[in-house]
Automatic annotation (TrEMBL):
Pfam families: PDCD2_C (PF04194). Residues 139-166 are annotated as: Disordered. It comes from Cryptococcus amylolentus CBS 6273. Residues 273-438 form the Programmed cell death protein 2 C-terminal domain. One of its GO terms (cellular component) is cytoplasm. This is Programmed cell death protein 2 C-terminal domain-containing protein. Signal peptide: none annotated. PANTHER family: 20S RRNA ACCUMULATION PROTEIN 4 (PTHR47524:SF1).
Length: 444
């Protein structure tokens, strides 16, 4: 796989990126084991936190029994649970994103929160140890051959096996990497890169885990619960754009107009800023990815929503400045995460992990929020189409508010939820850092 692509790169210059796109993949049947597993990925429903060692240190934190809004201090529902064990790690890692649906709490700090649960997976540890022993044996054999004949490399001219296995140039998600959202099993291979791995002696001691914990009614939850499936983000190369452009020459004006009406281009107002155009373009151009509700790229860069949001100005200082006529916005050159606080448990660096995009709002509607543990009998309001949702987002991003427009009670209004998690993947359960770009605050 190609290196992680800059969030601000022109979509026509990209192919595969390191970003995984998560999309809804159908409801989870009632009473299915996946509903109470921390190794499942889904939207809506109740979160399940893994079992923690009974004699865990205070630094590992405790499993919560409820997540409350930082504004109204009421219980808030889960938006998404994402099982995402790092490729080179020894832990199960699960991320949880929650948001308060109350209109009065939105646009206020603490109304959107995220948690991370990391617990040692002995199968992963054994797998890593086995791979390490094989690699060390191969490296020792290569060193022995070099001592016998120091002027030659391997018979094929290759570098020693150890340098390939322990090199620092491995991408986070290799080409053969399994999806980090896949459920854990005995056959799971979470480790393709072995660099910088170490077994902590204290953690390696036998542990006794307590029970896992799944939230239950009467806590609020969106229903039905839907699986998340993932694909690698693929942006068609420039040649595709050229072929489309050349084919336009043979089309009538009416055909050209119909073509442009199919996408965002037709509804984008002239006042829309470049950052929002990049956001829209990236989501729209991903092959088979138009239904994405979440983007995952541990250690990568987020995709900002608007140049005018405080979050974008913090992470991409200078993105709000007007561009010259022939200038192209390069967000990757502006990106900085220096303002993101360190992990509150281990003091390690936090890195970008995932972001939730606004198409999720059209799935987790107010009428789907219940406290009974099952879907509501309430008649669903007419669902807005994807095209109507696009137009609504564009108006909000441009600061346009229709006269007499009234906020629907319980309708979420964020445009982007960005989550940063501990790079060290320290064992335990605790809150991670969240940044939110709100739709109604994006006036230009």
């Amino acid at each position: 796989m190609a290196p992680s692509s800059p969030s601000g790169s022109s979509s026509s210059s990209l192919c595969y990126t390191n970003t995984l796109l998560a999309m809804p993949d159908g409801p989870i049947p009632a009473a299915h084991p996946d509903l109470t597993s921390h190794t499942s990925s889904f939207i809506g429903g109740y979160p399940t936190f893994p079992a923690l060692p009974s004699a865990a240190s205070n630094k590992t934190g405790s499993t919560p029994s409820d997540i409350k809004c930082g504004v109204c201090h009421k219980s808030i529902p889960l938006l998404a649970q994402v099982y995402c064990p790092p490729e080179d790690g020894e832990n199960d890692r699960t991320m949880y994103v929650f948001a308060c649906p109350k209109v009065g709490c939105q646009k206020r700090e603490g109304s959107v929160r995220a948690w991370r649960a990391s617990v040692r997976n002995e199968e992963y540890v054994r797998d890593v140890e086995e791979k390490r022993k094989i690699a060390e044996k191969a490296a020792e054999e290569e060193r022995e051959r070099a001592r016998q004949n120091p002027f030659t490399l391997g018979s094929d001219g290759a570098q020693p096996a150890g340098s390939a296995l322990f090199g620092s140039g491995q991408p986070l998600f290799g080409a053969a990497a399994p999806s980090p959202f896949a459920a854990s099993s005995v056959s799971t291979d979470p480790t393709s890169a072995l660099s910088a791995l170490s077994i902590n002696e204290e953690e390696a001691a036998p542990i006794i885990a307590g029970p896992s914990k799944t939230f239950t009614p009467p806590l609020p939850a969106y229903h039905p619960v839907q699986y998340l499936s993932t694909i690698e983000e693929y942006i068609p190369p420039a040649e595709d754009d050229v072929s489309i452009a050349s084919s336009d020459d043979d089309e009538t004006p009416e055909q050209k107009a119909e073509w442009h009406e199919d996408g965002w281009e037709k509804i984008l107002p002239k006042r829309t800023d470049e950052v929002f155009e990049l956001f829209v373009g990236r989501l729209e151009s991903a092959e088979d990815g138009k239904r994405q509700v979440l983007r995952y790229d541990l250690g990568g860069q987020p995709l900002p929503y608007s140049s005018q949001s405080p979050l974008t100005r913090k992470l991409f200082p200078g993105a709000e400045k007007p561009l010259g006529k022939n200038d192209e916005l390069d967000l990757s050159a502006l990106y900085t995460d220096k303002s993101i606080p360190a992990c509150s448990r281990c003091g390690g660096k936090r890195v970008f992990e995932l972001q939730v995009v606004p198409s999720l709002i059209n799935i987790l509607r107010p009428h789907t929020l219940t406290t009974t543990g099952s879907a509501s009998d309430e008649v669903a309001p007419t669902a807005i189409s994807e095209d109507e949702r696009r137009k609504e987002l564009v108006k909000l991003a441009a600061g346009i508010k229709e006269e007499g427009a009234k906020e629907q009670d319980g309708e979420m209004e964020w445009g982007n939820i960005i989550v940063y998690g501990c790079e060290r993947d320290c064992v335990g359960v605790g809150e991670e850092w969240v940044g939110v770009e709100w739709e109604s605050g994006l006036e230009l």
